[in-house]
Amino acid sequence: MIYEEPQFRPGGDRCIEAYFGDEMSFDLNFLVHSVVRLVREADIDGIIELIPEMASMQISYDPDCISYGDASREVMSLFRSIGSLESLELDSRMFYVPLFYFDPWTRDCVDDYRKTIAEKEWDGDYLVRLNNLESLDQLKRVHSASDYWVAALGFWPGLCSLMPLDPRSRLIAPKYDPPRTWTPKGTIGHGGAITAIYPDRTPGGYQIFARTPMPIWDREQRLRAFQDSLALFKPGDRVRFQPIDREEYDYIDAKVRDGSYVHNYVEYERFSIRNYHAWLATLDETERPF
Amino acid sequence: MTTIQILSPLPGVFYRRSAPGQPPYKEEGAPVAVDDVIGLVELMKSFHEVKADSAGTVTKFLVDNEEAVVAGQPLAELDG
Amino acid sequence: MLEVLKPGLETTIQDFPGRLGFWEQGFPPSGPFDMWSHRLANALVGNDEHAATLECQFLGPSLRFQRGAVVAVTGADMAPKLDDLSVPLWESFRVRAGQVLSLGPVRIGARSYIAIAGGIDTPPVLGSRATFHMAGVGGMDGYALKAGQVVPIAEAEGTLGCRVPEEFRPEIRAKKEWCIEVVAGPNDDWIDSAGHEMFLSSPWFLQAKSNRTGFRLGGPEWTFSEVATNKRPEHGQDPSNILDHGYPMGAVNLCGQTPIILVVDGPSTGGFINPYTVISAAFWKLAQSCPRDIYRFKAVSLAEAQGRRRHIDAICAQAVSG
Hints:
heterotrimer; A: Gyrase A, domain 2; Cyclophilin; about 30% helix; B: mainly beta; 4-stranded antiparallel beta sheet
């Protein structure tokens, strides 16, 4: 459910957790992002950082400037100023992410896991079976048909949680147990109902079946898209996957290496939840047309 | 013959084996050469090898497997 | 400039309050774990409290100074020496060009701070020089010091002969038992009253699997309230699972049955509950403890937590006498 009003709880003497509900839904997450935007715009003295998450946000504050009670009250009054969820709109960048499905590197990674840690069904086949799909080709069509919403980032710098905006692209998958000790940089994984892009070579637990040559993390800040941060995405961005083959993967990878790659994204779009709901109403969610 | 002590270089948890189920690096009575590993100290999610800095024979371990140690604590005695 | 002869176990450049403004993208604040000792080290040499210092963990580095400097070492006792002579902790002293400052294995405590007048002058990354070595961010090329590196230092005259009186230093002793103050929340309602009683009355031991990311504890079993056991499936299967949320610094993060205190380099978000949070004024105690040390947790009010924080801030602002 989405709570009538957020619940505030202390996280030590420098943080506040505000919980807005207890469900995994786009509407609730959009509400969280909207409150984050309002608090940022209000520029409240003493509020330092805001982390939007699935159903909550974390506020860090300077207790010499503002108290826990005052910070919570300020956020509550901004929340009350919202009115209806339907009226909310947010600027949202759209990133085009080239994706090589069923690539050799994630296959090698799964093989290594099977050899050294535990036997398991190959992740692509497992996703097809669990989600009643016909084939790997259909998995690729279904997964790449939807735009994705960057619901949150975290756990690791730049690691993004992506929600499909088209309900017909919803896929489910359990996580690895035990987790992998490594995952190739740029791997696409799916766990629960969330797709993620691994920014760097890290341990991981999502089912993996594709890889992008487009960096979403650059600790040297070489490419222009990284001039403000080492991580590409911000909460509230959107992602559209573009299936590519090996030849195009290598072409992009070479451009990334020589520093001439330019990330493809647009910054002029505004996401209206009313328009989104109207579009959803036109869909027959029981169908899978892809 | 002199008695030489091998000291822990770090605080942490002392292990006599490389992994559970493996034989100990050195049994009591075993010969030890310079730079032989005699155990591990676990600290900050890493395992650090403890090496002998002189040769001899292990007469006894002064610390049990998985016991907490402080830096500079004697771990084993050698006759050398 | 400082030449690294021996790097020590994991010596990193840190500044206070660390990397702020990028938490929403998953960058932890990082910064000095024992903020008290770090700030006093800077105060001793006449630096601003924000200047970057070296944080030495358990086994200190050996550093050759390529030019003269005013230096202070605070925090844990790693028996610092200048060439072959011992130098005192908690005092500023002069190092001449060519001399070697070396810190050894820790004798008391766990983390030492080396401040140099002018401060360490590596290029800031996302507004901070703090090292987040897990992801290779900040510090010296992203990671802990390595032998052969040369660490840049800004020029400054410094303040010689300054000292922190004993009563203004954190009480770093070879004690094995620490009282750690916590504030209840954010998810204290997920634990039942027996669980709270158990947490606050039991000794917890610090596991060796602990670093600047998290402090893993060993102790008794937790019990949960209705909130944890009767919840929507999105939260996850284990009683300790919750829909992904933010992780405050100091969170006592309950992962199944294992509490992990999330510290300076901890993850920003995740799917486990945080029934308690260690207060910022108690961080120095975590920073100065060794594996198998015992923690006893004491619940304090938010007002008391702020009072203790202000007390340390006041000490850091006025403790140095010269």
